[in-house]
Amino acid sequence: MSTGNTPDSRAFHTAVWTGKDMIVWGGTGQFPMNTGGKYNPNTDVWTATSTTNAPTGRDLHTGVWTGGEMIVWGGSDRFGDGLNTGGRYNPDIDNWTATSTVNAPVGRYDHTSIWTGNEMIVWGGSAYPSLFNSGGRYDPATDSWIATSTSSAPSGRELHTAVWTGSEMIVWGGNNGDLTNTGGRYNRNLDSWVATADATQERFGHTAVWTGSEMIVWGGGFSGFNTGGRYNPSTDTWADTTAVNAPTGRYDHTAVWAGSEMIVWGGGGNFAGFLNTGGRYNPGADSWTATSTLNAPSARAQHSAVWTGSEMLIWGGVDWLSNYLNTGGRYDPDSDSWTATTTIDAPDARRRHTAVWTGSEMIVWGGDFVDNDGYHFLNTGGRYDPDSDSWTATTTTNAPDGRESQTAVWTGSDMIVWGGYFDIPNNRIFLNTGGLYRPAANSWIATNITNAPSARAEHTAV
């Protein structure tokens, strides 16, 4: 694609396809923008959109194509306030016409918009601290709004999805204070809602451990759950983990199985920043015990954790201020106490790396950090001996390419890392390569890519 006359760099903009051009508009760079561009793929040419009478700069808005015009509406201004203004852009004459605000929905962002054939329906979204279950139908022929019913409408939410079936708008999922698995079908002819069946609960950024008979999942989610579940594959049944005395809800934390307890630690909380707290969960008693914060490592997320047989070792990660860390700690659940790991000869600070326990050492490898020069994806690592509190670097000779969000397992004699990704300018490269690291020889052997799975990251491996 040509870069001549391209719009300024931006994010959280909108894009529509007209049948011959793509029109991008709005979004944020240093500040929210009211500029855009029309791109014709047949001629590989960009043409700027007029700013005369254009809506005020914004991001997190929506845009639909009517067949003759692009309609943009809502979004957030430079102060984070929700907008209830918009505009209709005619690309043939490069002209903007404002949308009426009479009876328009309350200003918002992170909402959805769909085009029915003669109306734009906007619904949901937020304007801090409110989440909306309201919306409106905009008729460009009359420049008028009609509110959508809130009777039996889904709960207020943002970052959901919406589709038009030809007769109904279906909205589903999103954030309604937590990730939600609910939705609704809106019939515009009847101005009525019917609920969609609930799907399996959604969450991400959670952890899972295997106890020997059950899988325990905990935490995660858009806002950080403090809930979880125990899955018994023998009976194909779930049991909730108690929330009584459970740690603060979080995501991007770590969890290890200690033989009779699951220990969770660190991570990010929705409004609590990053955490240096944790908890020990006993599935036999369905009970939680807090981990000590005395001498605990600094709060962090996207770190690693392993269980040695007597201690949990945590290392690396990133703090709330985006400082990358090469510190860690050893947690003894018997004494509920922490001991810092040395930073002498420790690997460079990083996050989203992997760690395995060999029986005598923790091996950390890969991950990334960001500085003024951009992202750095690492193919370095280190072996930590808790008995001597010392680090030994892993060789980079024949090591896999630097990456993050890969997996690593210990075979009994080797560490195998696989997958992950790294970035190059304007492109993310997912990998289906890996390496077998033998600590006894401090050597790497590449994994074969013949018949390997497709490239990926943030997967699992056992």
Describe the structure.
- By secondary structure, the chain is mostly beta strands.
- The chain folds into 2 domains: 14-195, Kelch-type beta propeller (Neuraminidase); 207-446, Kelch-type beta propeller (Neuraminidase, 6 Propeller).
- It has no helices and 44 strands.
- It has a 4-stranded antiparallel beta sheet with strand order 1-2-3-4, with no helix packed on it. The chain has a 4-stranded antiparallel beta sheet with strand order 5-6-7-8, with no helix packed on it.
- β15 and β16 (168-172) form a beta hairpin.
- The model has no long low-confidence stretch (mean pLDDT 92).
By DSSP, the count of extended strands is: 44
DSSP helical segment count: 0
> Helices and strands: which structural class?
mainly beta
Largest sheet: 4 strands, antiparallel
Mean pLDDT rating: 92
Shape: globular
CATH first level of the largest domain:
Mainly Beta
Radius of gyration: 26 Å
CATH superfamily of the largest domain: Kelch-type beta propeller
Percent helix: under 10%
Give the low-pLDDT segments: none
The domain tally reads 2
Q: In CATH terms, what is the fold-level topology of the largest domain?
A: Neuraminidase
In the CATH classification, which architecture of the largest domain applies?
Answer: 6 Propeller
Biggest sheet strand order reads 1-2-3-4
The CA-CA distance between the termini, in Å, is 42 Å
